[in-house]
């Protein structure tokens, strides 16, 4: 059962893979092993949010077609983060990171747009509509995707930020 998911990517540290852009490219490659990456936005240089005393971020988004269900996809994204050197258990929340992957939206033919809230995963991502650094790159690749709770397209959400 093919599904389409939108994933946000962010990096603000250099790593063994190189600079922020190299980190995002490495993540895109690893995520490509979870299905077929069908679109990748350009990368946007952005100010940090929350903990502001840290380096600037490079953010982007991608779309992937996958057979993985939402929670399985999230777990695989966290595996990618760990493989790239990020451990959410020990890292400062909203602090500097080599890679940050967030599952934003998920839809498939059987269920349509998925809305769910568990201890492990909330879909759609609970704060995506407030984050310019997510919406700007997502608008490039999925401007008409409608937030299944708010009823607004990505483009409309961006206009309201």
Defining traits:
4 helices; 6-stranded antiparallel β-sheet; 26% strand; single chain; 27% helix; alpha+beta; 161 residues; two-stranded antiparallel ribbon
Summarize the entry for a quick read.
The chain is of the alpha+beta class and 161 residues long.
Summarize the helices and strands and which ones pair or pack.
Layout: E1 3-11, H1 20-31, E2 36-40, E3 44-46, E4 57-66, H2 70-83, E5 100-108, E6 112-113, E7 116-117, E8 122-123, H3 132-141, H4 154-160
Antiparallel strand pairs: 1-4, 1-5, 2-4, 3-4, 5-6, 7-8
Helix pairs in contact: 3-4
Describe this structure in words.
The structure is a single chain. With about 160 residues, the protein is of the alpha+beta class. The protein has helices spanning about 20-30, 70-85, 130-140, 155-160; strands at about 5-10, 35-40, 45, 55-65, 100-110, 110-115, 115, 120-125. Strands 1, 2, 3, 4, 5 and 6 form a six-stranded antiparallel sheet that branches. A two-stranded antiparallel ribbon has the order 7-8. A hairpin with a 3-residue loop joins β5 (about 100-110) and β6 (about 110-115). α3 (about 130-140) runs antiparallel to α4 (about 155-160). The mean pLDDT is about 95.
């Amino acid at each position: 059962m093919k599904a389409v998911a939108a994933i946000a990517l962010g990096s603000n540290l250099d790593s063994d893979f190189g600079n922020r852009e190299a980190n995002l490219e490495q993540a895109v490659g690893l995520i490509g092993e979870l299905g077929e990456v069908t679109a990748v936005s350009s990368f946007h240089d952005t100010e940090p949010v929350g903990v502001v005393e840290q380096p600037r971020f490079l953010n982007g988004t991608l779309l992937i077609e996958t057979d993985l269900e939402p929670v399985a996809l999230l777990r695989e994204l966290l595996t990618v983060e760990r493989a790239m050197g990020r451990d959410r258990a020990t890292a400062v929340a909203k602090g500097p990171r080599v890679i940050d992957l967030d599952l934003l939206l998920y839809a498939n033919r059987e269920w349509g747009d998925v809305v769910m809230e568990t201890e492990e995963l909330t879909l759609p991502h609970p704060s995506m509509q407030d984050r310019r650094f997510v919406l700007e790159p997502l608008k490039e690749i999925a401007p008409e995707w409608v937030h299944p709770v708010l009823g607004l397209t990505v483009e409309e959400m961006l206009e309201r930020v």
